[in-house]
Amino acid sequence: MNQQVSPHTLPALPYADNALDPVITASTIGFHYGKHHRAYVDNLNRHIAGTEYADMSLEDIIRATSGKADKAGIFNNAAQIWNHTFYWKSLRPGGGGEPPAALKEKMEAEFGSVNTCKTVFSAAALTQFGSGWTWLVLDGESLKVVKTANADLPLTTGLKPLLTLDVWEHAYYLDYQNRRPDYVKAVLEKLINWDFALENIP
């Protein structure tokens, strides 16, 4: 279990704020990471101060508050910190391309081909109504694509996240306006971090 000392802090980006240019610009990173992600951290610390959750790790808070309507404020902020931290790691400068052999083998076994897996992933991202996330996950030994709304995440349903794509509008609107398909295509072709996905396979 990853224990974390409260108060929770904003994790550092794994690269410079202009490293994903031009697919995701430094301007978008400035707002998305510098404003949105930071706000989730600040809000969570405010919500949990003096409560039973104050000294819990992020994952413990998420599991303890999932599905509890009276704890939605805590869950949403904790889950969004976790989701965003995972999202930044799911991207890398010079990403995309061919997945590592072990991941490619799993994709081919489950979907028939890497391209089919990417097509299913893209379709999930494009059909997520409103705000949410698209995930490549392990369900036991099986590779799956799932999507979640708002702050929801696979951790609460026993799935193992391998990588994610943020499809909240603030993730792409400055760069792509309402063209979510262009954002999804560009990330899959040029930024997706297949190595990170492989690292998350037990």
Nutshell version of this structure?
InterPro entries: Mn/Fe_SOD, Mn/Fe_SOD_BS, Mn/Fe_SOD_C, Mn/Fe_SOD_N, Mn/Fe_SOD_N_sf, SOD_C_sf. Belongs to the iron/manganese superoxide dismutase family. The protein has 202 residues and is mostly helical.
Task: Note down, in words, how this protein is organized.
With 202 residues, the protein is mostly helical. It has 2 domains: 64 residues, Fe,Mn superoxide dismutase (SOD) domain (Helix Hairpins), CATH 1.10.287.990; 99 residues, Iron/manganese superoxide dismutase, C-terminal domain (minor pseudopilin epsh fold, 3-Layer(bab) Sandwich), CATH 3.55.40.20. It has 8 helices and 3 strands. It has a 3-stranded antiparallel sheet with strand order 2-1-3. A hairpin with a 2-residue loop joins strand 1 and strand 2. Helix 1 packs antiparallel against helix 3, helix 2 packs across helix 3 and helix 5 packs antiparallel against helix 7. It is globular. The two termini are 15 Å apart. The N terminus is likely disordered. It is an enzyme of class 1 (oxidoreductase). GO terms for molecular function: metal ion binding; superoxide dismutase activity. Its EC number is 1.15.1.1. Keywords: Iron, Metal-binding, Oxidoreductase.
